[in-house]
Design a protein that fits this description.
The protein has about 350 residues and is an alpha+beta fold. Helices cover about 40% and strands about 20% of the residues. The strands form two sheets. Strands 1-4-5-9-8-7-6 form a seven-stranded mixed sheet, with helices on both faces. The structure holds adenosine-5'-[phenylalaninyl-phosphate]. The site of adenosine-5'-[phenylalaninyl-phosphate] (FA5) has 22 residues, from β5, β8, β9 and α9.
Amino acid sequence: MVEEQIQQLQSAALQRIEEAKDQAALEQVRVDVLGRKGSLAQFNVGKLAPDERKVAGKALNTAKQTLEGAFETRERAFASAALNTRLKHEWLDLTLPAPGPRPGSLHPVTIIQNEIEDLFTSLGFTVLDGPEVETEYHNFDALNIPPEHPARDMQDTFWLANGHLLRTHTSPVQVRGMEKLGPPLRMIAPGRVFRNEEVDASHEHTFYQLEGMMIDRNVSVAHLLYFMKTLLSAIFHLEAVVRLRPGYFPFVEPGFELDIRCLICGGPGCSVCKQSGWVELMPCGLVHPNVLRVSGIDPDVWGGFAFGLGLTRLAMMRYGIDDIRLLASGDLRFLRQF
Ligand code: FA5
């Protein structure tokens, strides 16, 4: 009698195991049947008569073993179905060619430098290069800045044991250009310069400038303004708002500072323009007669203009970069945007 009940229970449980849709449903069947309060536990074999006890006990053990086997088989089926689904979605085609290294991109300063070089060569200018390790003579003396001149303090730099220095500006290339090519002369000289400078959002110790110089007969401030405006319109593709104020550099007379309306904040003030709304971009002026004379050019016959563009600052304005330190950070997340 009990044996029959156990067998019925076993077949019902086997059917439920077969019908279980997933692992959770299967677990529920296990609790219902084999759990401490499950259907098999209700058979209290101890209370039966001895001959019945033996038969019932045996049937109970057989049922338990059969069900446990069935649970295991069903569980394995679920696991292998899950694995198959995963493999279907995670396949890899090993015959595809490897993606290879990602294409690189030009640094924003290089992009602008190339554009300015193209513009000025189209206007008849030569692109010159000069050494980053300069002589004191080319960096200072030949530019009308003798040793005791206070203008040297404004461009504190890194001196080498042999008396040479890391150039503080691209202006020494003016001197080299005049020495080598003589007048008439139209040249630009982009390059890296160095200063012993406190670094902040708009100041680096290593940055880029682009020097420009034109020497000819009857060169005036009007020529200077024409070339500077042409340069800024080409870079910004619009007429940038600029202001010209007097500026002092020993190698020009008269000297000017050309500032551009800050394109990061548009005027109200930010950390790049030091809350002033203007960014100092391009000092310039007419070449001082002493500078022409030192390089063997007669100031009574020839005159010229020169400018020193802050190329790094120009890149910041054009691309809306609000911290100069990003440009030399080597951070690929930053560089990949250009
Ligand atoms: C000069 O270096 C002069 N040689 C420029 C010049 C050339 C004047 C020819 C007249 C004739 P200045 O020190 O102001 O000038 O620097 C020129 C530009 O470089 C600045 O307007 C600014 O845009 C940029 N600059 C200067 N210091 C830094 C710095 N620490 N970090 C980034 N940019 C700088």
